[in-house]
Amino acid sequence: MPPKKVLKKITIDEKKEIIEKHEHGVRVSNLSAQYKMAKSTISIILKNKEAIKAANVSKGVTCLSKQRTQVIEEVKKLFLVWLNEKQLAGNSVSEGLICKKARHLHDDLSKTIPGTSEAQEFKASKDWFEKFKRRTGLHNVVRHGEAASSDSAAAEAYKATFASFIEKKGYVPHQVFNCDETRLFWKKMPRRTFITQEEIKLPGHKPMKDRLTLLLCSNASGDFKVKPLLVYHSENPRIFKKNHVVKTRLPVLWKSNSKAWVTRIIFKEWLYEVFAPSVKAYLQEKGLPVRCFLLMDNTPTHPPSLVDNMDEDMNFIQVKFLPPNTTPLIQPMDQQVIANFKRLYTKALFSRCFQVTNDTDLTLRDFWKNHFNIFHCINLFDKAWNDVTYRTLKASWRKLWPECVPERDFDLEETST
Questions:
Q1: Measured between alpha carbons, how far is residue 81 from residues 86, 271, 290, 414 in Å?
Q2: For residue 119, what pLDDT band results from cuts at 50, 70 and 90?
Q3: What backbone phi and psi angles, to 5 degrees, belong to 337?
Q4: Fewer C-beta neighbours within 10 Å, C or N terminus of the chain?
Q5: How far apart, in whole angstroms, are the C-alpha atoms of residue 276 and residue 282?
Q6: How far apart, in whole angstroms, are the C-alpha atoms of residue 105 and residue 82?
Q7: What is the set of domains in the chain, with CATH numbers?
């Protein structure tokens, strides 16, 4: 029995090449011979040349599905960025929240993209959700870890303790601070992008697994962000030497160890070198008493002995720790601040990728592999942290300290999800 003939799939790039040659005068019969295709196949490609020429697809794609509007495509891109940030933040999302977010994105984009009808209906129905899952490989996951073991009773009890303490000490929102660490795979893009799929197949080191740790801190009034701490596995990356980078001028406090973790020593250095002097200057500028309250979680990085071992010039800082297993519920930095920062970083990263590949001859893969490094990453961090809004920072305190958040900011969580 003769072997079954395998049909050759023609990529979009090949189809564009055939169209271009035909437009330059190459005959159908010659194209048929050159590409070893039937004349009828060539004719079908030429018949659909307008749609093929307008297609902007990843390398290796062989067919065009039903053309979606520009708004729908933008909704998909922004939605995957949002979903990736939810994943990084450890948040679970339901079908209802996904559809609500998709509708919200579509409504916003319909008003901003020229030539788009605001009346265009997009229901984000259950049928749309099922098709979206098939196209993107989205699947249900079980939530594990810190969020799964949260102690809601302890969180509720601490809210009363916190309110009593603040009232007794007379602190105002400008004087109350919260900090928290977060790990970040700084070169990781949503797993459904083709560049991530390519990297998965490559042998050796995976840049998307290159991680660092950031410590972010701000106050309850939302008008002061402390310079972040960044811990990386290299003290002097090659790109720093090449560009003669002065680390003291970076928008982050640069520290390093082999695991890229915040240690007690590193945290204390940030407290002494960054937090104390910057907060003191801020309070003096505001004309407030030079005393502040720093709230932290109870990780080993923040030992209770930290308070006892402070120098005399640090006695204006009062430190307290959240009860165990309450941070996902009431710690301000965990209430959309860090998640929003990561979303803004990913958005800036996408924008950088698109800008470079549009303005230069670099392919996305070349840019990603050879022209995006930790120095570029720090600049994106700075932009993302600056873009975290006053309202986001202030509204993050509403679960722990609702009295300091205006009523108009209580709906922020809904509008930002």
A1: 9, 33, 41, 17
A2: very low
A3: -70, -55
A4: N
A5: 10
A6: 10
A7: 1-67 (1.10.10.10), 70-136 (1.10.10), 151-415 (3.30.420.10)
Question: How does residue 299 score in pLDDT terms, banded at 50, 70 and 90?
Answer: confident
pLDDT, residue 413, reads 43
Whether pLDDT at 284 is above 90: yes
Amino acid at the residue 162: F
Please tell me the predicted confidence (pLDDT) of residue 118: 44
Give the number of other CB atoms < 10 A from CB of residue 232: 20
3-state secondary structure of 77: helix
Judged against a pLDDT cut of 90, whether residue 178 lies above it is answered with: yes
Angle at 61 between CA 56 and CA 65, to 5 degrees: 70
Q: Which residues contact 261 (CB under 8 A, 6 or more apart)?
A: 213, 231
Residue type (1 letter), 132: F
Token reading at 67: 């053309």
3-state secondary structure of 321: strand
Alpha carbons 297 and 182: distance in angstroms, whole number = 12
Q: Residue 83 corresponds to which tokens in the numbers above?
A: 């979903």
Q: Which two tokens stand for residue 241?
A: 């030497």
Which residues, in sequence order, are bridge partners of residue 182? 214
Q: Rounded to two decimals, what is the model's pTM?
A: 0.63
User: What tokens appear for 140 in the block?
Assistant: 């249900």
Q: Is the dihedral of CA 328, 138, 416, 387 positive or negative?
A: positive
pLDDT of amino acid 89? 55
Asked if residues 146 and 327 have their Cβ atoms less than 8 Å apart, the reply is: yes
Is it the case that residue 134 has pLDDT exceeding 90? no
d(CA 401, CA 155): 12
